[in-house]
Amino acid sequence: MIAKTEIVESTKQSLDVPVIQLKSVSKSFGNNSVLRDFTFDLKKGENVVVLGKSGSGKSVLIKCIIGLIKPDTGTINVLGKNIPELSNEELDRIRAKVGFLFQSNALYDSMSVRENLEFPLRRHKAKMTKPQIDELVVEALTNVGLAHTIDMRTSELSGGMKKRIALARTLILKPEIILYDEPTTGLDPITGKEISKLMRELAKTYNTSSIIISHDLNCVKIVADSIVMLIEGKCYAQAKYEELERSTDKKIQEFFI
Amino acid sequence: MLPRIFTTFLSETGDIARFAGRFFKEAFKPRYEFAEFLRQCFFIGYKSLPLVAITAFIMGLVITIQSRPTLVEFGAEAWLPKMVSVSLVREIAPVITALICAGKIGSGIGAELGSMKVTEQIDAMEVSGTNPFKYLVATRIMAATLTIPILAVLADSVSLYGGYLGANIRGVVSWDLYWNQVFDTLAFSDVIPSIIKTFFFGFAIGTIGCYKGYNSNKGTEGVGRSANSAVVISSLLVFVLDLLAVQIIDLLSLT
Fold first, then answer.
1. CB of A114 within 8 A of CB of A150?
2. How far apart are CA A67 and CA A82, in angstroms?
3. Strand A209-213 vs strand A177-181: parallel, antiparallel, or unpaired?
4. Which of A66, A103, A110 faces B127 most closely, judged by CB atoms?
5. Do A109 and B127 touch (CB under 8 A)?
6. Which residues in chain B have their CB less than 8 angstroms from residue A108's CB?
């Protein structure tokens, strides 16, 4: 199967090779400078949480990585390609290898769960046959524990179910990298914890690297290998959860009180 | 210094023109979103059909009933089918169809794309390797441009039938006599320009609805505002285009 081959190939790569490299990335909106010389590496197999205040530019950061927003300066290398310089076709090829989980889930209201999951497959894997597509859809839904929702409308789903379906849609192309934009926002603590554990399990199953934007410290504890503190538009610190929790720096302490 | 309202108007007009230009640039290049185009034709055309038909029927009936007393006063009652058919086919049916569509389709597209924008569905589409402009905008503009003329032709027929019933409420006009008079009166120069202008009406309604929805912001409040302004601007544009069409037809001596 194509998907398994992809996973085996990706595991052959060295774990130290950065799959995402950001160098001196800056982005302003009018007079509001959101990112200032932001530099950061994400290594193969690593799960990094980006922690910062609301409006500090966390979502802008991952939208720059996926090419939805163009940075003013700096380079963003994703799987060896500089995103701001890519043509639309090249960008689409990279996007097939990078999953993005939106804060609002961004499930298509006009489509059923099945159609939502089929959509990226039909776009990126146009040569796939109907049985192959069906198999992948069922597999992705089974992995998030919602195979029974396949023919439901997205409006019939609860918040937690929508998040799981969005996660299944993100994973259906077996991406090498996943970008999560506040995956537990708006969920109750129990569902939030379930989603965090699911993210951790799926990262192992699919052998992905990920950047997770989150305010939820319970989620951070479960999913993070390391944490990047985004303060005043810069990568203020990067360390493990326990190290940052013990930090005496006031700017870091604010997040752990 | 120009007043702020004037500069805003010019800026918005420029943005809409650029948006329309992008449609021509992107719509005719592969990949073609044919399935989505057909789906939109169904929603825009087929789903609007009952509303357009009922409105056209009532307009035909009302225009005939209201015109009759004046014609009777001048002893010209026999001219009723002629007068009604020209006014319905040239002006009333196309404009009423366009206004109904501006209300139904314009607001629908504005609200749908607006809510997709604020819930990041458009971004999700882009991330999924789909050009959202082609998939969402180009298909809707094309569907509106092609289906509104069909609805207008249907509205012409239904309104003329309404006119026949209206003529028979107070007087007696046989089926054959009514339709003979209608077809004797109507020339290609009445029918063709009125159909041609509905393509422009459809294009304007689709473009404004998509422009407002696609550029929606400020959350759910912005979605409501997009839907509302899509209806207001596209309705106004229908009248402006109608005025231009009448002038052009007059200049070309087609009347």
1. yes
2. 10
3. parallel
4. A66
5. no
6. 116, 121, 124-125
Could you give the ipTM of this predicted complex? 0.83
Question: Domain range spanning residue A239?
Answer: 2-256
We report the CATH number of the domain holding residue A245 as 3.40.50.300
Name which of A92, A96, A106 is nearest B120 (Cβ-Cβ). Answer: A106
- Closest CA of chain B from A110, distance in Å: 10
User: What size, in residues, is chain A?
Assistant: 257
Question: Which of A29, A70, A100, A167 would you mutate first to test chain B, the one with the most B CBs within 10 A?
Answer: A100
pLDDT tens sequence for chain B (255 residues): 678 888 888 999 999 999 999 999 988 888 888 999 999 999 999 989 999 999 999 999 999 999 988 988 888 888 899 999 999 999 999 999 999 999 999 999 999 999 999 999 999 999 888 889 999 999 999 999 999 999 999 999 999 999 999 999 888 888 999 999 999 999 898 899 999 999 999 999 999 999 999 998 877 888 898 999 999 999 999 999 999 999 998 888 766
Angle subtended by helix axes B80-87 and B175-185, to nearest 10: 50
CA-CA-CA-CA torsion sign (B239, B241, B245, B251)? positive
Q: Chain B contact for A87, CB < 8 A?
A: no
Q: Which residues contact A160 (CB under 8 A, 6 or more apart)?
A: A187, A188, A191, A194, A195
> What residues in B contact A68, CB-CB < 8 Å?
123, 126-127
Total count of domains within chain A: 1
